[in-house]
């Protein structure tokens, strides 16, 4: 097949990537991802909550602290949790600020559905240098398998911006818990790989 510049993914590749990601996650226990081989924290992380009410102080979502707690358990130092409204430029600015600030991992929560205000993937795509579709599909597949429908139907992206891994998750407790269980062990290896450059 000739390369026409299309970004369509071969369904067989998506199935193979999903199977590889599941096998990898199954092989690594939580203890394997808490601390790097040197005994240090894996890296710095930042959480971006995309929620209009939380951004205006009306509803302090518990999802930001939950993501922070799960990141801490996985061996990350969480620099901060920030809330932004579901406006593309605000989301993009928050992600760019994290990347410029040198964090190793940015996890955004929310804005990945099919509603008119769900623009996190569009904002994220503008920030990424390289997509990691295997992680995206692993999060969706794992979400569906775990019964986190919003996680399974998420349009969320994952990829690298500079030397920062960026991951979008859906905004339910089930999607966050399942998404973090899938992302954490993969994130350690991505961060180690990109820090070698």
TrEMBL record:
A Pfam family this chain is assigned to: MoCF_biosynth
Listed InterPro entries: MoaB/Mog-like_dom_sf, MoaB/Mog_dom, MPT_Adenylyltrnsfr/MoaC-Rel
Annotated metabolic or biological route of this protein: Cofactor biosynthesis; molybdopterin biosynthesis
Keyword hit for Transmembrane helix: no
Keywords from the named record: Molybdenum cofactor biosynthesis
Residue ranges occupied by any MoaB/Mog domain in the UniProt entry: 46-190
Record carries keyword Lipid metabolism: no
Identification of the protein by name: Molybdenum cofactor biosynthesis protein
Organism: Gordonia hankookensis
């Amino acid at each position: 097949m000739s390369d026409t510049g299309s970004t369509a993914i071969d369904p067989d590749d998506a199935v193979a990537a999903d199977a590889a990601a599941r096998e990898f996650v199954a092989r690594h226990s939580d203890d394997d991802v808490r601390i790097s081989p040197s005994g240090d924290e894996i890296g710095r992380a930042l959480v971006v909550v995309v929620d209009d009410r939380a951004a205006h102080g009306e509803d302090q979502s518990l999802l930001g602290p939950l993501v922070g707690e799960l990141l801490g358990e996985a061996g990350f130092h969480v620099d901060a949790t920030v809330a932004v409204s579901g406006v593309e430029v605000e989301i993009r600015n928050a992600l760019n600020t994290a990347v410029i600030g040198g964090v190793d991992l940015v996890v955004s929560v929310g804005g990945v559905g099919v509603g008119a205000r769900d623009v996190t993937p569009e904002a994220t795509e503008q920030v990424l240098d390289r997509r990691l579709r295997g992680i995206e599909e692993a999060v969706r597949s794992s979400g569906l398998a775990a019964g986190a429908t919003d996680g399974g139907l998420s349009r969320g992206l994952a990829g690298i911006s500079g030397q920062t891994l960026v991951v979008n998750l859906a905004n339910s407790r089930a999607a966050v818990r399942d998404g973090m269980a899938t992302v954490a062990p993969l994130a350690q290896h991505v961060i180690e790989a990109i820090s070698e450059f």
